[in-house]
Task: structure prediction
Amino acid sequence: MESALSILEEEMNPARSAPAAPLRDVVIQDEFWGRYTRLVRDKVLPYQWEALNDRVPGAEKSHAVENFRIAAGLSRGEFHGYVFQDSDLAKWLEAVAYRLTTDPDPCLEAVADEVIGIIAQAQQPDGYLNTYYTVAQPGQRWTDERRRHELYCAGHMMEAAVAYFEATGKRALLDVVRRFAEHIETVFGREPGKKHGYPGHQVIELALVKLFHITGEKRYLALAKYFIDERGRQPHFFDSEEHERGEEGHKGYFEGYVYAYTQSHKPVREQDKAVGHAVRAMYLCSGMADVAMETGDSSLADACRTLWHNVTQRQMYVTGGIGAQDYGEDFTFDYDLPNDTLYAETCASIGLVFFAHRMLQMEPKGEYADVMERALYNGVLSGISLDGARFFYVNPLEVWPQACAHRHDHRHVAPERQPWFGCACCPPNLARLIAAIGRYIYSQSETGVWVHLFVGSSLSTTLQGKPLRILQTTTYPREEGSTFTLALEGTADFTLALRIPGWCQQPSLAVNGSPMELEPILKEGYAYVHRLWSSGDRIELGLPMPVERLSAHPEVRADAGRVALQRGPVVYCLEETDHGRNLSGLALPRRSVLVANYESNLLGGTTVIEGEGLRTQDEDWGDHLYSSRESLERTVPLRAVPYALWGNRGPGELLVWVRERR
Amino acid sequence: MESALSILEEEMNPARSAPAAPLRDVVIQDEFWGRYTRLVRDKVLPYQWEALNDRVPGAEKSHAVENFRIAAGLSRGEFHGYVFQDSDLAKWLEAVAYRLTTDPDPCLEAVADEVIGIIAQAQQPDGYLNTYYTVAQPGQRWTDERRRHELYCAGHMMEAAVAYFEATGKRALLDVVRRFAEHIETVFGREPGKKHGYPGHQVIELALVKLFHITGEKRYLALAKYFIDERGRQPHFFDSEEHERGEEGHKGYFEGYVYAYTQSHKPVREQDKAVGHAVRAMYLCSGMADVAMETGDSSLADACRTLWHNVTQRQMYVTGGIGAQDYGEDFTFDYDLPNDTLYAETCASIGLVFFAHRMLQMEPKGEYADVMERALYNGVLSGISLDGARFFYVNPLEVWPQACAHRHDHRHVAPERQPWFGCACCPPNLARLIAAIGRYIYSQSETGVWVHLFVGSSLSTTLQGKPLRILQTTTYPREEGSTFTLALEGTADFTLALRIPGWCQQPSLAVNGSPMELEPILKEGYAYVHRLWSSGDRIELGLPMPVERLSAHPEVRADAGRVALQRGPVVYCLEETDHGRNLSGLALPRRSVLVANYESNLLGGTTVIEGEGLRTQDEDWGDHLYSSRESLERTVPLRAVPYALWGNRGPGELLVWVRERR
Result:
């Protein structure tokens, strides 16, 4: 890698303007997120450990731990599961590491250490680590990166190793992945004799940047950059692979489509629309942003901005869901956002959070935080049930359970959360995101601190060589704002940049009780409060949250004539359980007054939106299927609940975009 | 078949109340249908003959005639095409026969005679006739009725033979199919040693009834009845077949679904919802109705009524399209009628016309004729272009061409008519229906004549032993009504039953200039005018056709808040060519005045509907995808054209159900 490294040296011009505050510096104490972090700690991680060990009755078998035991020579048997089964364990370990960072638990750590020992034993003498190829297809390594996910599994294990090292200071798994990374370096690269290749499913790019960060070893960054730069070049790597396997022309289901599906249809800097598998696209974009920031590569940063723009302004659901079709779990085309036949995988919204978080560190703009918040409070959390034991893979915005049961083009849409999946990427992905929610709240530079999310928490850090603590108290998104109290030694001259959400029309700010004019200090979605701060200074940010009726861009055919309700960052929905069947028969008059009410006994305590709606009467239709008579309507109460909480009161219909009566 | 025959004898209680007037008695002279019958005569039949002989440049190869030549020993080569390729030639021959009935052409007849000679030579010594098995799989006959369409091809050849005999009096093809039917009798039946089976794709049932009609041989009716009675019995024939092939459990794509797909999930008399492949279902129902009428089987007639009710009052598009999904080309479930991902195959609407026409003969009720007319003027004719050279297989009610190009769940929806299909069932099916349109206009019994359709035509028949001629003059559906002039010898006491369409709110009737009160003579959709008629009597039927806004039943989710425009029997649509892109941005205010105007230069001369609509403005949206600002609208002219004519002015968007602004 010498040549790539030396190129890198020249390009190095770091551009991470607002690096995230590390997880260990943030303590969460929050009404809203506390529910989810406790759920991950008390339910999800223990449940998933049981699942990974095939001890959940009735759930699909994982075999992930057993695959490692077999590869390690500790057990006998056959590999079971997907070729990417290893990544489920890796994501669980990563989630465990975050949990241990914020909430130490020697028992859990001992369990993790033990399984890390098995992983280390499963590593091959040359550093290779992948239970599928080790157990099921020895000798076939690195022959099918397009489909076989070796680099993907490697990436997830690297992320786990970095997180576990940061949490515990233990090097065992870090050493494993470093040896693996060095093995991968011998296989892939521009140099003659190496494969001029890259993963079919991205994630190793961003993982290698993490590895670079924790170790300071530029070779990892160089390898990440290589994978990104090589992607989509001609002659095409996937064709070469196919040729070497003697399988030309056997692309099967994705015939003619394998390139866009994996975002390798052209070099990444030439890509201007998000295409293909949405999770892969988000992991790629995250890795691109990481490499751009670490190397100061402005063309790569521009490609990130272009793709960000396309995803969030053309191809994103109002819930932060992405991926408009089942086929390929794919992006489709601008403004194609059907509500019922979509994909909107939980993992894709998680990937969007990763991408947003990186862009936010590259350049702290409210548009990134707005999307990050939209995805977090809606399309991510919809993936998990209130009891933490059931999950959505696909997150629809409109559900007619009969269609899911009878229509082949809805067969991928489950009308209820499921206990576990054979392809179990989403549950551990949720766990690792929620367990690390503290990383997404604050950024910090030499000159100050940014607040991106309104989460009850404290940040304990050092600024300009002196300790600083920021205590954020809030009941957001239930109530309208956050209060920040500073603790520091003496005084300090720095900027506190508070996000003013895009959804908020009438924000207010007061420092130590004195209102401040916002206009002069607003820049790209943040209020930059710069002063000489003293301990005990108190900043009150008011974020009024009237109920908003959102319209979609007129090109979004699926939402024409409809509105979605949103209050603060929370998108609402109608459920059959509150309105009876046939939600399409409901309309919301524009003149209806909509009121938000907190209900402490509903869905663990949540704010509902209530108002008057109209329902088409079907009593007098009889057996007519079509009629020229004007159909009658009656006034009915409407009650919308947060989208993320739908489906927690039994199966039934769901509707986000409701017809508006002007 | 002796026992089945004797059972039949006992049951025989014919119940064809209003038999259709035969094609040879009807001469069409009609502004509307003339265009289509000329198209079939001058374009479609010659074009299809070229296609069947693989002489259309750029079109998919048919090979249908060549397959027969090979099977006849007149040519060497391999079978090419689908296992049901023979049926394309049969349907063409049937269409030719109808054309020769109404419009003799010695040249065309010579061509037909020649190909009939080839067919006769392809028949095997034992009467078997199927080029696929004869050429490609000798020895495998009758081993896979579920998938291999031998009885289906037989049925179509029988229909062709009956039609050709009726048209020309020539027996060659009739003799072929009689020998084939007698061979089939030796293979299938209740008797021990025979296969207790029936076709995977129905049509032979109704074809055998035609053969019975023309020959008077009850054994054909008995075989039709057997196929219908056997269907869906346990042990299941398709399982037995599979067992005999040693292929248990290899149902492939349709795993777990083969029974409903072929309407064999239970005995036909127990079926209460239309399921499975829509064309098969309609051919089955037509055969059931035929057998019920010929045998007086009231339980079978009831099953027909139940299925009719389900199809037309729960699962039919406003265009007369049926089959709501691509998978299985299937019915789905009640009120599931998506406009863009549907199937609505041209052949299925044709099948619905066949079913309706039989029910109408069983019991002359307006509901049957209303549906027959709806399908004919809309979902059938939409299948063919104005130049007769391009065809829709799938007939959508909403098209966004980008979605057809990019969404996998729209890949079956062509946004433009295609020149020919590898699976070419629809073009010859259209040809045989249009060529025989004269059969659908009149019914006749001992006591009178029914008029079902308003088509410029004359019926020359004999009633009560005396010649009677009814001349119908009309410009329907351009203008509002029909005039009937009688020619007879002396006077005659009979009933003229004129259909009062369900869509008509204010019909009027005058006999020899004197208005008649309709109420007292109205019964189930027909005005029964009974009197002593004289030659020259003139009946004027007025059918005012204001523009109607139709709503769908509130359970039809896809059409909630929308209306479809209809005038008379014609359903209208909006096209991109008249409104620019994004038809979903249009809304029709309820207060808008809608006016029908005939435009002689548009689409070969047609009536358009015009009025004021609203269009959402998207100029000021910029890059916003969602916004809480109220979106602005501007007034725009709307212009709707007949649905059947859409797509004749270049590709683009289509919309039938337009949002209504109340």
Observations:
- The longest strand of chain B covers residues 606-616.
- DSSP finds 20 helices and 25 strands in chain B.
- Residues 4-12+24-249+257-440 of chain B form a domain with the Glycosyltransferase fold (CATH 1.50.10).
- The CA atoms of residues 357 and 440 of chain B lie 7 Å apart.
